[in-house]
Amino acid sequence: MITEELLQVRSDIENNLRMLLGRAVMVTDLDAFALPCGCNGITANIRGLELDDIEVFEEQMLIYFKKTASRLGIPPSFIFARLIPGSSVVAAINWRVLCDRCYPDFARARGKTPRPDIYIMHLERRGQQKGTKKG
Ligand SMILES: [Zn+2]
User: If you measure from the C-alpha of residue 40 to the centroid of ligand 1, how many angstroms do you get, rounded to a whole number?
Assistant: First the structure.
């Protein structure tokens, strides 16, 4: 049952962030989502995390977040933090499997903040996967 897996992963992410940062961070919910366009993924809504924390611990967090994706059976191709615009508060961590229509919007972006509410931690460029392109 996917929801039992989500329960476990929610608490693991929370514990991992607490250990890393040494203070209280809460994953208030962990949701699986599917959009009409074909994008799908996982969202971890978070309280107590700041953009500074991500910038300092980005490498460690990313290793852990990639493991989290494979644990949930999704490719770790696009991982980003959603910010509350105009602040440094991290509202959520998103693992999004981009559909073919949405992928170019993000791939075109330069830098880590293509939008005021998005901080890209990891985006796999599809052009780099030589010979693996499917019709
Ligand atoms: Zn899409």
Answer: 8
